[in-house]
Design brief:
The protein has 243 residues and is an alpha/beta fold. Helix content is 36%, strand content 18%.
Length: 243
């Protein structure tokens, strides 16, 4: 069947693509959940639908659950994707922090950037000192703020919380590729998304920010918007049929 989805375990995590094709473009997908944990396998349902809608190969990368090792793992997975041709990066929650951190590291090293990036409800400021953490604490049923603070401290370790590699919101955002951001208006991390979008726009970055009324609306509409963004900035092209 033309839309049959194939999942293959690769050296950096599961790879998802439409069976019988070899898309030249790859999406590096960095998973995350409200507890700053999870596994690449948790991302597979989203990756399958994203591969179906966008026509890209989606690599759900493995990374160690601590900093800076997580960013080193993501950099290695990115190099694997980039060696195949044009590639984009998507990050959710903690994966959003890593995706943005990857953009900054590649720019600082003078390496080719992703074609574009998508950040979904990202954790972009590990100081965890924003108004939405208080204002939306009762409305956001996906995140317990006290648990988030404990998990964030464990992940950051001895790294200063305002280090831009850990907290990209504190970094220089000039020279980044086009970025799409998604968040729910009721989530505790809303200010991370809004502040990053504002600073990126002020830095001359092409920004598409989507704020949904709640997490349910975000879940219903985000994937289609993400696929549209990928098609605009990293169009899918197919090599010769696989096999």
């Amino acid at each position: 069947m033309a839309n049959e989805i194939c999942v293959v375990e690769g050296p950096f995590g599961p790879e998802v693509h439409t069976e019988g094709t070899r898309p030249e473009q790859t999406v590096l997908y960095l998973h995350g959940d409200p507890r700053l944990s999870g596994t690449p396998q948790d991302a597979l349902p989203t990756a399958r639908e994203l591969a179906r809608q966008s026509g890209h190969t989606v690599l759900c990368a493995r990374y160690r659950p601590r900093f800076p090792e997580a960013l080193d793992d993501v950099l290695s997975a990115w190099a694997h994707c980039r060696d195949r041709g044009p590639a984009a990066v998507i990050g959710k929650r903690l994966g959003g922090a890593l995706a943005a951190g990857l953009l900054l590291r590649l720019r600082d090293e003078g390496a080719p950037p992703p074609s574009c990036a998508v950040l979904s409800s990202p954790v972009l400021d590990f100081t965890l000192d924003t108004q939405s953490l208080l204002v939306n604490a009762a409305a956001d049923r996906t995140v317990e703020v006290d648990v988030l603070r404990v998990r964030a401290a464990a992940y950051a370790g001895t790294t200063p919380r305002s280090d831009p590699r850990l907290s990209p919101l504190h970094g220089n955002l000039h020279g980044l590729p086009p970025i799409q951001l998604h968040a729910a208006g009721t989530e505790v991390l809303l200010d991370d998304t809004l502040s990053f979008a504002t600073r990126a726009a002020h830095s001359g970055v092409a920004v598409d920010v989507r704020v949904y009324e709640d997490a349910s609306a975000q879940g219903l509409r985000q994937l289609g918007a993400t696929a549209d963004f990928l098609r605009a900035w990293c169009p899918s092209r197919l090599a010769e049929p696989a096999g």
